[in-house]
């Protein structure tokens, strides 16, 4: 007599492919997943609650630790929200420095994704190549603000430090270098038969589903929705740059890969224009009151982080700290589609799909 | 060879037992030496391919003693065993996986004179014995009482079934040409033309199947790190783990040696370069193969289990059959 039985398998919280402390309880039949339940919260630090007791400037370092792979965009979203509600002007040079820093961060974030994704698929080398280029970016950002991961660079009304001498030129030199390496990546992986077999048609969903699940970023664009907040609602100075939004068609892991790799190229385009346009001199911190008090009211701003739409909602009652602060953390929303995608897939596809969503657990758990 | 036959026919006793033990020592030390430095070489090659240095502290700047230190560490580690594990099988599994890897070494001819057993069906013996290792992996996966290990064990069984057959089918071409299953004769047949030139398709199939047999990237599914963590040996530590590791690298040695013998002409020199000793020729060809295995590991992502089986049954097997057909025609017309 042959009897089969469903097996309950705990994937995580300590598992090499969950990209952090993420737990997935899956019911498997052989290698086929019948049901998957994500369990999150292992990294929950209560950023939003903590923020209620902090002055606005003090909140900034907390945002570094949410999406720790692209801390610059998180810095920006809180500063942008406060600037919007208070109505502050940001000097021109500061805006350019912010954009350069954010786009560098976006490239670094996508590089980490590329490396770890290929590592999930069993290729070990791309990881190290991607980290070489990321190291170059990290070094640039380190020169800018003295930190490698949690930058704490932006301030309400501008940025903390002006770029050191020659820094802009270094960024300028970095652009062709990165383009060259990107070609190398495509030559190495993008045409690889095994890789294509592993990602094509895997984790597919339609436009409607993506919108229903409130996905954003590359997870949304891979289905063909042309939605990038930098284009749709240009914030900062993004309306001054000429760049495209890579859009996929098929909505599978392969389309997401192409979207993200395309985004690196577009970020390089933005960088190229930004380093040309940046004013030679100028203040980097605008006129900001010593103690920032947001007027009574509420504000919601959103920007495009490497993972999708990151939003910041502030409800203020005219005090030094917010009455309520809420971050819309894209990884958290993007993760919601996971149980649906995993149903009926096998164990090997689990890592392909989970990796393809591109989550950062610091952001999922807040 | 005659004294060997006499020895085999002699009644069992202490003297011939000790002779057997002493005779095995050189091969053991050669193989263990190879394993030690193959692991180091693999780490070095991967390191340089991945912008790293590899081991460079223990034993001088080339890390010559790194593996020795690693093995020592494994030996003195606590021998842990899961509480609910099937104890006898758990202990037995590494042995089942490891013993055949050494048994196959007996038939490999390094040169005309350096070999340990020249048996008529050497090739068959090699393939038959090497299949046993999978049993060890399956046992390990089952006995660990770990779900990941079980999946790894199951994968290794599925993989073995899908790959052993194309592997054997690819060999039929060689056997057709050589007219023998004896490895020495197969090498002697390749005095002028190595079989890689006569059997290019067979060589490719055999190489792919051998990679799968060795559980190396892109076919390292039983121990797929990213989904199954370490697969069948996830619960093993210390010297039991070392046994699995050892078996893996001894197989790398054996498989590379077998491919050298079957397709690259064994110890036969390239024509005109006969002044270089046979053993060196064997070593060169063998090292190139080992390097290619390492190179492949640095380059390719891992294939999915269902794709692997599909590839094995739907691509490799028919192509291997075609290869037999072509070989037969070639043989009939030209030889």
UniProtKB/TrEMBL annotation, chain A:
<dbReference type="Pfam" id="PF00346">
    <property type="entry name" value="Complex1_49kDa"/>
</dbReference>
<comment type="subunit">
    <text>NDH-1 is composed of 14 different subunits. Subunits NuoB, C, D, E, F, and G constitute the peripheral sector of the complex.</text>
</comment>
<feature type="domain" description="NADH-quinone oxidoreductase subunit D">
    <location>
        <begin position="120"/>
        <end position="289"/>
    </location>
</feature>
<keyword id="KW-1278">Translocase</keyword>
<dbReference type="InterPro" id="IPR001135">
    <property type="entry name" value="NADH_Q_OxRdtase_suD"/>
</dbReference>
<keyword id="KW-0472">Membrane</keyword>
<keyword id="KW-0813">Transport</keyword>
<keyword id="KW-1003">Cell membrane</keyword>
<keyword id="KW-0874">Quinone</keyword>
<dbReference type="InterPro" id="IPR022885">
    <property type="entry name" value="NDH1_su_D/H"/>
</dbReference>
<comment type="function">
    <text>NDH-1 shuttles electrons from NADH, via FMN and iron-sulfur (Fe-S) centers, to quinones in the respiratory chain. The immediate electron acceptor for the enzyme in this species is believed to be a menaquinone. Couples the redox reaction to proton translocation (for every two electrons transferred, four hydrogen ions are translocated across the cytoplasmic membrane), and thus conserves the redox energy in a proton gradient.</text>
</comment>
<comment type="similarity">
    <text>Belongs to the complex I 49 kDa subunit family.</text>
</comment>
<dbReference type="GO" id="GO:0005886">
    <property type="term" value="C:plasma membrane"/>
</dbReference>
<dbReference type="GO" id="GO:0048038">
    <property type="term" value="F:quinone binding"/>
</dbReference>
<dbReference type="GO" id="GO:0051287">
    <property type="term" value="F:NAD binding"/>
</dbReference>
<keyword id="KW-0520">NAD</keyword>
<dbReference type="InterPro" id="IPR029014">
    <property type="entry name" value="NiFe-Hase_large"/>
</dbReference>
<protein>
    <recommendedName>
        <fullName>NADH-quinone oxidoreductase subunit D</fullName>
        <ecNumber>7.1.1.-</ecNumber>
    </recommendedName>
</protein>
<dbReference type="GO" id="GO:0050136">
    <property type="term" value="F:NADH dehydrogenase (quinone) (non-electrogenic) activity"/>
</dbReference>
<feature type="domain" description="NADH-quinone oxidoreductase subunit D">
    <location>
        <begin position="292"/>
        <end position="365"/>
    </location>
</feature>
């Amino acid at each position: 007599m042959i009897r089969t039985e469903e097996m309950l398998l705990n994937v995580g919280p300590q598992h090499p492919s969950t990209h952090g402390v993420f737990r997935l309880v899956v019911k498997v039949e052989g290698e086929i997943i019948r049901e998957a339940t994500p369990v999150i919260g292992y990294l929950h630090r209560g950023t939003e609650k903590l923020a209620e007791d902090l002055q606005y400037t003090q909140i900034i370092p907390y945002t570094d630790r949410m999406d720790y792979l692209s801390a610059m965009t998180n810095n920006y979203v809180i500063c942008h929200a406060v600037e919007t509600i208070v109505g502050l002007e940001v000097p021109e040079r500061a805006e350019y420095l912010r954009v350069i820093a954010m786009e560098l961060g976006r490239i670094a974030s996508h590089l980490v994704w590329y490396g770890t994704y290929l590592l999930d698929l069993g290729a070990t080398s791309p990881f190290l190549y991607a980290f070489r280029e990321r190291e170059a970016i990290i070094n640039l950002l380190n020169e800018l603000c003295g930190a490698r991961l949690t930058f704490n660079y932006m301030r309400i009304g501008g940025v903390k430090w002006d770029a050191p001498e020659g820094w802009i030129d270094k960024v300028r030199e970095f652009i062709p270098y990165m383009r060259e390496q990107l070609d190398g990546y495509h030559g190495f992986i993008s045409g690889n038969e095994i890789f294509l077999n592993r990602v094509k048609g895997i984790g597919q969903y339609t436009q409607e589903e993506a919108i229903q699940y409130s996905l954003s970023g590359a997870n949304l664009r891979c289905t063909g929705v042309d939605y990038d907040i930098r284009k749709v609602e240009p914030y900062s100075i993004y309306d001054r740059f000429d760049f495209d939004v890579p859009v996929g068609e098929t909505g599978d892991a392969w389309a997401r890969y192409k979207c993200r790799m395309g985004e690196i190229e577009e970020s390089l385009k933005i960088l190229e224009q930004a380093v040309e346009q940046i004013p030679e001199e100028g203040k980097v911190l605008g006129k900001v009151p010593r103690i920032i008090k947001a007027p009574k009211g509420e504000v919601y701003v959103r920007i495009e982080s490497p993972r999708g739409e990151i939003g910041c909602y502030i409800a203020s009652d005219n005090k030094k700290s917010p009455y309520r602060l809420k971050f819309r953390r894209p990884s958290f929303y993007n993760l919601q589609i996971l149980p649906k995608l995993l149903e009926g897939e096998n164990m090997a596809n689990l890592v392909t799909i989970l990796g393809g969503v591109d989550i950062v657990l610091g952001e999922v758990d807040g | 060879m005659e004294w060997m036959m006499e020895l085999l026919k002699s009644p069992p006793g202490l003297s011939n037992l000790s002779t057997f033990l002493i005779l095995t020592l050189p091969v053991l030390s050669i193989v263990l030496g190879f394993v030690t430095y193959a692991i180091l070489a693999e780490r070095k090659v991967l390191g340089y391919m991945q912008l790293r240095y590899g081991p460079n502290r223990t034993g001088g700047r080339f890390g010559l003693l790194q593996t020795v230190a690693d093995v020592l560490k494994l030996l003195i580690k606590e021998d842990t065993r899961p509480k609910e594990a099937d104890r006898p099988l758990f202990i037995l599994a590494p042995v089942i996986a490891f013993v055949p890897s050494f048994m196959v070494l007996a038939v490999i001819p390094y040169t005309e004179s350096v070999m340990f057993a020249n048996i008529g069906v050497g090739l068959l013996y090699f393939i038959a014995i090497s299949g046993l290792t999978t049993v060890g992996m399956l046992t390990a996966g089952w006995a660990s009482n770990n779900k990941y290990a079980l999946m790894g064990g199951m994968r290794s069984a599925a993989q073995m079934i899908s790959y052993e057959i194309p592997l054997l089918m690819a060999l039929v071409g060689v056997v057709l040409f050589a007219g023998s299953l004896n490895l020495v004769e197969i090498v002697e047949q390749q005095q002028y033309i190595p079989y890689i030139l006569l059997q290019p398709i067979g060589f490719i199939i055999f190489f792919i199947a051998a990679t799968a047999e060795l559980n190396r990237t892109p076919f390292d599914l039983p121990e797929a790190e990213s989904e199954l963590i370490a697969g069948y040996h996830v619960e093993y530590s210390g010297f039991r783990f070392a046994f699995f590791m050892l078996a893996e690298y001894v197989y790398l040695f054996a498989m590379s040696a077998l491919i050298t013998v079957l397709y690259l002409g064994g110890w036969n020199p390239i024509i005109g370069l006969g002044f270089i000793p046979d053993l060196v020729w064997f070593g060169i060809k063998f090292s190139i193969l080992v390097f290619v295995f390492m190179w492949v590991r640095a380059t390719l992502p891992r294939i999915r289990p269902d794709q692997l089986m599909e590839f094995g049954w739907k691509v490799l097997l028919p192509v291997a059959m075609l290869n037999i057909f072509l070989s037969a025609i070639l043989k009939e017309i030209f030889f």
